[in-house]
Amino acid sequence: MRKNTLFLFARQGFSKAFAGRANKVLMCVLSMLIVYATWNGLSAYTQQTAIRKTYEREVRHNWEKMPDKHPHRMAHYGYLAIRPKHPLSFFDLGMESYTGNIIFLEAHKQNSANFSEAGMSTGLLRFGEISIAMILQVLLPLVLFFIGFSTIAGDRENGTLKILLSQGASWKEIIFGKSIGLLAVAMVFLLPVIALLLVVCMAIGEASADVLSRIGWLMLFFLLYYAIVSLVAVLISGISRTAKLSLVSLIGIWLLFTIITPRTTQAIGGWLHPAPSRIAFESGIEKELIKKGDSHDPDDPYYKALKDSVLRANQVDSVQQLSFNYSGFQMREGERISAEIYNRHLKNLMQIYSQQNRVSAISSFIDPFIALRNISMASSGTDFISYTHFQQQAEDYRYRLAQHMNELQIKLISNDKKASQQISREFWKSLPALDFRPLSHSEVLRQEWISVSALLGWVLGLTLVVLIFSGKFKSV
Amino acid sequence: MFRLQFISFLRSRLAIAGLMIILLTGCISIFTGRQHLKKQQQSVAMTELQQQQHIQRNVQFFQKEMGLLLYYLRFGLANETSALNALSMGQRDVNSGVQSLTIRGLENQRYDTDLFNPASLLAGNLDFNFVLIYLFPLLIVAFTYNLLSEEKELGTWKLVSAQSSRPVRVLWQKLLVRIAVVAGALVTLLMFAAVVVPVPIDAAFFAAAMIALMYLLSWFAISGWIVSLGKNSNVSAAALLGIWIMLVFVVPGAVNNFLVKKYAVPEAMATVVEQREGYHEKWDMDQQPTLDKFYRHYPQFKKYGQPDSSFSWLWYYAMQQLGDDDAREHTDAMYRKLHQREDASASIARWFPSLHAQHQLNSIAGSGLRNQLLFLQRAAAFHEQKRLFFYPLIFDNAPVKSVDWHRFGMEYFSEEVNLNWLNMLLPFVLTIGLFTGLAWWRLRKSISSLQ
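Output (structure tokens, whole complex):
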């Protein structure tokens, strides 16, 4: 391949993209949408972050100002875990709207994350949301298809293709050159967006090394995706007899990739790995808990045996004679057992969800859109994994809180009900605030290895197709 | 002539392939809907069974103290799922169809969601609504975008114009054939759903079918208008696809953003915070003010006076009650805004066939926000009714055995759906009228300029 010829085709394709009036209108609309999506994402981010930060502070403040009381009352007063928004969530809204943002953490009970936007939404949300990522992932490829459908098929129809080939241009040069031209058109949109991301992150004071590396990698993966889109457009144009056929095929591919496959594979995942309903999940836990020992039942054999063994070990004959608070001791045991059972069930449930999502992830080898969508969400902290990561940390905190209060009760509260049943409020501060740590970017990318390899596989595969089969393409 | 048009259309590979795809995805969607419906019903049945066992077990454990027993007991209220839900799942996969409530504070119980995989919610359901709103229009576009341009591009249009005194009639016939085929596919799928799900064939089903049909006719009208502009096939295809993207991506997304911003509900978090503070602070206060407030809310219980022990169930439930009362202001504001969201969404939807179809179908199937809000309000009434029943029993510490616990089965809520035909169909009629009129005017002009 000669560099000059390649460059010539690329430049010609690029300048042609901005020639027609229809193309200009399209690109104008797209740019306006990007501006709108940025404004929208950013204002949602700042609004939500302000609300959540306020309540987060209020929750901590209220916790610390609680007066002297029994530690178990504090364990029931509990804590509210509020999920912070990732700064890049203004770029890709991902699952943000479907996930709950506030969890009430209390002793004995694991509550669900509530008040997702979806729960308070009219059905409109289900049409999908407009974000910068959605425009770049869904709409820009379609625009590239519109610009690219006639690149070769058009030349074939008006006879220029024959001339080009007879003048010594090779098929590889034509295909790669025109693809590079299309890729350059994509860059016209991608590069400003990346610059915008950098500027915004700096403006909101979130330009940490982790965020910058996320933006850098996002750019790289989007670049790979557009390389795939451009090659597909030019190749389909290359094998189609007429430009019209090429357009229809490309529209079909776009629909298949962006609308039909993601939904269908997720549905197949749900069908292959059915998840339990809430009631089935909870009753499974309850059954196991009762089997192990019901702390509510005064005659429960498990807790009776526990009590007897404690009394024997301490060589006393009633709990009043123990040197520590027995009911705190029993609750610590109960909390340990119930948390263990709950976590095992939750892990199973999350496994089922992951298996469902795995079906979709694997299908990114058929559909590169899914691969990019997953990487983009993961990098923006709005995907399934970063959500469950939050849930997990909230549950860990809940367990720590409950056990901390049980320990205080064991140590400081008398078995004698007539003695003071309160401890000083100074103890409340000893429980550190819930400090949510998002996954680091390298961990995120490791989790998304399937999608990353699917994208690379696509680029490699398409390049090979051009290198091997381009000789068989026909000029008429 | 009509028969010939029919045969020639059905001979094209595109027509057969398109029909096969739509019928196949339609059938898959109906089975998906049936699965969803079953899951909902199983969940209710399971809650019912659970509740029986749960009440029996706890009644055994806590025979001495009514107050302690009611601390644990849960009572279920189910949101009945109509069979039409299988066709338009709406928000029913997000919102739990069952509320299982204790008589303690309401606000921290009733917003518990169902368990779901957020990735599946994001991807969207493969329900019949999806096939109808997204895929059917594409089929219509594929069938009609080159209705006129194809004849022109192949050179047959001149022949038609020369041979027929009214060439538009030929176009009209071609369009009618396509409408008949698409409507046939729709009816087939609806019949299939009626048998497989099964959906009872009643007024609601008929209304859903009418909405579906009118929605598709709106698309035929839009498509007919684009065709009448007489552009070449590629331009027509691009324009129609652009309209499709606008109607199913851009406009709904923008409208939703607008609604979420305009009717933002920071009160949601406030409700949780206030309820929790309101309840817990009472533990550290004198009992008297708490009881005074409680008696102001329920004067009928004044006779119980002030208990003399440091803990009493009367005081405990008064504290729980006041948690809800303290959050009331935020709760009311939240509901007001959510109702405003729903109303605004309904009135904006009228202007866009895709939104209107979705909104109306969800409303009929009881799977929209309105249904959820009504269910939550019903849950509050249900909770109040249980409270009022048990409060005197607790305060008197009535013997546990004096209550017939078997009568506390599952209760059901079902929304009464009013079919407002005018509201349902008029927006479609106007869309169809507008675009058919435009197309007719355009065609008449271009033909007269031809002659």
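Chain A has one domain: 3-472.
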